[in-house]
Specification:
The protein is an alpha/beta fold and 481 residues long. Helix content is 30%, strand content 22%. Strands 5-4-3-10-9-8-7-6 form an eight-stranded parallel sheet. It has a six-stranded mixed sheet with strand order 13-20-19-14-15-17, sandwiched between helices. Strands 1-2 form a two-stranded antiparallel ribbon.
């Protein structure tokens, strides 16, 4: 079987990767925190959120003692007991997932837990350490629902035997996940290629249960290798006590501020030139031999610069608060995407760029017509400018004023996002739309209206794009309060 159906989504060949946000036991025994985890997963546009259903009394005797692995003198029984998801939460969590447009998933560690979950889950997740638990596999398989099976700590023969057990019960709805049972997993130990071996050995759809700290590298590599499902642990705060928080992903800082977990944050980036960077871009034939010309018909590559920038991000003041000099600038919306089209080339139709911009607008509750200016990523490479320009024109219409500032700053790489954001904020504050330095004409193939000269305007909202390798895209909407 090359596809399975999980709720409303097909998962497998030819389908977008199915994203499972693993909340696990990061609720720390708080029902309200569990709900906030679901909200964070929904805000991040995951397809499903997954918890775990177990009882300490069925996993360890009270005399089991301490765990050397967890590096704590506490009894492993007590630790696992504190991590339990209470049975009476399950219907409530499933209902909240449904209201937020997510599938509710959970990993049962015993037959009784599987029975409890059955009315509420569209599929079952089998944890790595239960993959060889034959009675549990048979019990779940007989329920006739898809089974997502992690394979951490197993050898191929064990995986094949587990698949035989499930198939013997008449269930072929299986997705196998490559998993390294180390928390966190170093990137050089992810072994994403194993998902190809699993797929070839079983004929089943495969994916990655990733425990690395990096949010992008392993999932992008896995999808490039044909992964149909990605699972990542997440938390609301790395600093919280618990076994999984330290290696889990954290939501972006705006969600932490909105949740009241953080009062303010310094955000930004910096980058400097080195030979590795120059050689890398040179080998890709992306460097221009002159100051770059974004969106110009004669553009021929980027000019690398170096720089740094930062901003203080805090909750927007409430009604009646004293405005700062020059007017309050607010971050109205954030949108992210990863199309994973190619390591160094965007999707030719700008699908990832479009998705990031649409998500930024949706986060701010804005229609495209509300935006009065777009600060383009504008690298001055032929494919990037064409893809971005046409994506902007399709979403906002061909008449919206846009410009790219890399002709003046160069491409600041890791500092590009913050630099473009600051330029966008200054544009709002000074009611001035910058021109596109060094460019003498606009390539009509790019679609959008690119300003060659600056002009006076007072938009309420502006959008800033910053895109990266592997189709990693981010769009920010700034506005005047």
């Amino acid at each position: 079987m090359t596809k399975v159906r999980i709720g409303e989504r097909w998962v497998g060949d030819g389908e977008p990767a199915y994203i499972v946000a693993e909340a696990g036991s990061n609720h720390n025994g708080s029902f309200e925190q569990a709900l906030r985890l679901i909200d964070a997963a929904a805000d991040a546009c995951a397809d499903a959120v997954k918890f775990q259903q177990f009882k300490a009394a069925k996993l360890y005797p009270k005399s089991a003692g301490a765990s050397d692995y967890l590096n704590t003198p506490r009894s492993i029984y007590d630790i696992i007991h504190d991590m339990e998801t209470p049975d009476d939460w399950v219907p409530e969590l499933a209902g909240h997932c449904r209201r937020r447009g997510l599938a509710f998933l959970s990993s049962p560690f015993d037959e009784e837990s599987a029975d409890l979950l059955d009315p509420w889950v569209p599929a079952f997740k089998v944890a790595s350490y239960e993959m060889t638990h034959a009675p549990l596999l048979r019990h779940i398989a007989r329920k006739g629902k898809p089974m997502i099976v992690s394979t951490g700590a197993a050898v191929l023969d064990e995986v094949l035997h587990s698949v035989e057990i499930i198939r013997a019960e008449g269930n072929d709805q299986i997705v196998l996940l490559q998993c390294t049972a180390k928390y966190p997993t170093p990137l050089d130990a992810v072994n994403a290629r194993a998902l190809v071996s699993l797929r070839e050995a079983t004929g089943l759809p495969t994916g990655l249960s990733d425990h690395s700290r990096d949010p992008v590298v392993a999932p992008v590599v896995a999808v490039a290798l044909g992964a149909c499902l990605i699972e990542k642990h997440f938390t609301l705060n790395h600093a919280w006590k618990g076994t999984d928080h330290a290696f889990s992903l954290e939501p972006d800082i705006t969600r932490l501020i909105d949740a009241g977990l953080v009062d303010a944050a310094v955000v930004g980036g910096c980058d400097s030139l080195c030979l590795t960077t120059l050689y890398g871009f040179g080998s890709l034939e992306l460097l221009s031999d002159r100051p770059c010309r974004p969106f110009d018909p004669d553009r021929n590559g980027i000019s690398i610069g170096e720089g740094a920038g930062f901003a203080l991000l805090q909750r927007a003041p409430g009604p009646g608060a004293r405005a700062t000099p020059g007017g309050e600038i607010v971050l109205a919306g954030v949108g992210e995407s990863c199309d994973a089209y190619h390591m160094s080339t965007p999707h030719p139709e700008g699908l990832g760029a479009t998705l990031a911009m649409q998500r930024a607008l949706a986060a701010g509750g804005l229609a495209p017509e509300a935006v009065g200016y777009v600060n383009l990523h504008g690298t001055a490479t032929r494919s990037n400018d064409t893809a971005e320009g046409n994506a902007v024109a399709k979403l906002f219409g061909p008449g919206l004023p846009c410009s790219a500032t890399k002709g003046a700053t160069g491409h600041l790489l890791g500092a590009a996002g913050i630099a473009e954001a600051i330029i966008s904020m200054l544009s709002l504050r000074h009611e001035w739309l910058p021109g596109t330095a060094n460019s003498n004409a606009v390539d009509p193939a790019c679609g959008c209206r690119v300003l060659l000269e600056g002009e006076r305007a007072a938009p309420r909202y502006v959008l800033s794009n910053s895109f990266g390798f592997g189709g990693n895209n981010c769009s920010l909407v700034f506005g005047r309060a």
